[in-house]
Specification:
Elements (H helix, E strand, L loop, with lengths): L2 H12 L2 H15 L9 H5 L3 H10 L13 H18 L9 H5 L4 H14 L25 H8 L30
Helix pairs in contact: 2-7, 4-5
GO biological process, one term: actin filament organization
GO cellular component, one term: actin cytoskeleton
InterPro entries: Calponin-like (IPR050606), Calponin_repeat (IPR000557), CH_dom (IPR001715), CH_dom_sf (IPR036872), SM22_calponin (IPR003096)
Length: about 180
């Protein structure tokens, strides 16, 4: 089996049809329109127009111009505009897929992961009252302790990992030592 075929098989195994269906239903719920019947999930999203419409529904005016005609670079520009808009909306850069992941269908699982990250981010925007996707992110639970409670906590011996009865790892050597070679 060639390396390319192995990579494609591994990426295909990462895809989760249930998550794709859930993401599709969320997009349809936000946009108020169904995907064309018989078309694959990634084919509907490929040109970026649906994605731009999605972010414009969540935050109007996020993408000023949606390219509906033109060459492939115009369509890829839609995807790039969507990526910029969701980063501005609050989706962390680490959660955003690469343009080729969608355009060349290299990693559709990452595209779905980005949609879930966008869906989670909608919880943090009180102006959005439409459907949500994914679990609600946790919020900070700040606690204020009195000085008395803080002092009482300093006297407690923490043994969360248990007691080691005075044993240490001194002299223990696992594997080969680190060798630094200079001048070679």
């Amino acid at each position: 089996m060639s390396l390319e075929r192995q990579v494609r098989a591994k990426l295909a195994s990462k895809r989760n049809p249930e998550q794709e269906k859930e993401a599709q239903q969320w997009i349809e719920g936000v946009l108020g329109a169904k995907f064309p019947p018989g078309e694959l999930f990634e084919d509907v999203l490929k040109d970026g127009t649906v994605l731009c419409q999605l972010i414009n529904k969540l935050k109007p005016g996020s993408v000023n111009k949606i390219n509906t005609s033109g060459g492939q670079f115009k369509m890829m520009e839609n995807i790039t505009n969507f990526q910029s808009a969701i980063k501005a909306y609050g989706v962390p850069d680490i959660d955003v897929f690469q343009t080729v992941d969608l355009w060349e269908k290299k990693d559709i699982a990452q595209v779905v992961s980005t949609l879930f990250a966008l869906g989670r981010e909608t919880y943090r925007h009180p102006e959005w009252n439409g459907p949500y996707l994914g679990p609600k992110p946790s919020e900070e639970c700040k606690r204020d302790f009195s000085e008395e409670v803080l002092k009482a906590g300093q006297t407690v011996i923490g043994l969360q990992a248990g007691s080691n009865k005075g044993a240490t790892q001194a002299g223990q050597n696992l594997g080969a030592g680190r060798k630094i070679l200079l001048g070679k």
